Amino acid sequence: MIKYIKESTEYLQNKGFDNPEIGIILGTGLGQLTNEIEIISEVSYNHIPNFPTATVEFHKGKLIYGILAGKKVVVMQGRFHVYEGYTLQDVTFPVRIMKQLGIKTLLVSNAAGAINLDFKKGELMLIDDHINLQGSSPLAFKGVEELGERFTDMSAPYDTEINLKFKAIAAEKNIQLHKGVYASVVGPQLETRAEYRMLKIIGADAVGMSTVPEIIVANHLGLRVAAVSVLTDECDPEHLKPVNIADIIDMAAKAEPNMITLFKELIQNI
Predict the structure, then answer these.
(1) CATH code for the domain of 255
(2) 113, 208 in Cβ contact below 8 A?
(3) What's the CA angle centered on 17, arms 11 and 22, to 5 degrees?
(4) pLDDT of 143-180, one tens digit each?
(5) d(CA 209, CA 161)
(6) Contact 60/51 with Cβ under 8 angstroms?
(7) Where are the beta strands (DSSP E) in 57-118?
(8) Taken in order 221, 225, 231, 235, is the CA torsion positive or negative?
(9) How far apart are CA 158 and CA 261, in angstroms?
(10) Which terminus of the chain, N or C, has less C-beta within 10 A?
(11) Burial 92-107 (b: 16+ CB within 10 A, else e)
(12) Contact at 8 Å (CB) between 153 and 257?
């Protein structure tokens, strides 16, 4: 993996990716932040050596480098998932590349279903903790200790200072920003009524199919991390209706301006 990381990093440096400070991963239906960036360089994933290729139709598949709110950023427009057939090492490979390029902070967004029925679709949730239900760890491979501490501490995986800033920005901008626990499952099927009940019992406030692997690796690499979920549907097992993926994408797009405001304002202040 060290050889692959070096090859990918050198390729991007030669494409003008010069010491970004902040990495950003954009989730399902959340690609419009790139319109706020003064783009210096962008590369399709399938052109980057050793990179996976996004196979989900609503994930763009570009790595973008530029200026956002006065800071150098590298942005994943589209991410990878275990349900696409990738390993957890594949899914998190871009985080390792962003670290090598120079980032110190990683900001993550995703679309999630609200398990906590006090949370409503169209609102945002700041992730304070998570539950890994993806069945393995992105650190479970031979030689991981060459890239960081094998037994990575996860007592506080999300940066307290950044989360406090997110809450302050949300209050100032009158944005509803809940705080909660995100459960990450494999997917791609959505949950049954019994599974939603289980998730609530074990303490989840929202559920999705991403984010946790990237957060684990970011902690492994010593990055400051924060993540925000856009709540796209309400997962009430007692009144469960079939979910339309197009509706989820549409709801993510409607909530996206608030997420963009949070990210821009935060980046100006870190």
Answers:
(1) 3.40.50.1580
(2) yes
(3) 125
(4) 999 898 999 999 999 999 999 999 999 999 999 999 99
(5) 26
(6) no
(7) 62-68, 71-77, 105-114
(8) positive
(9) 20
(10) N
(11) bbbbbbbbbbbbebbb
(12) no
Give yes or no for a contact between 213 and 92, defined as CB atoms under 8 angstroms apart: yes
- SS3 for 161? helix
Pairing of β 62-68 and β 71-77: antiparallel
Average pLDDT over residues 224-239: 95
Which residue has tokens 């902040």?
22
Once rounded to an integer, what is the mean pLDDT over residues 185-189? 96
Contact 106, 95 (CB under 8 A): yes
Q: Are strands 71-77 and 22-26 parallel, antiparallel or unpaired?
A: parallel
Question: Inter-axis angle of helices 2-14 and 88-101, to 10 degrees?
Answer: 50
- DSSP for 107-122? EEEEEEEE-STTS-TT
Rounded-to-integer distance, Cα 31 and Cα 25, Å = 10
pTM score, two decimals?
Answer: 0.94
Give the domain extent around 163: 2-268
Identify the CA nearest to 163 among candidates 178, 184, 183: 178
What would the two tokens of residue 267 be?
């980046």
Interatomic CA distance for residues 35 and 264, integer angstroms: 12
What is the band of 57 on the pLDDT scale with cuts at 50, 70, 90? low
Q: What is the pLDDT of residues 33-51, one digit of tens each?
A: 899 999 999 999 999 999 9
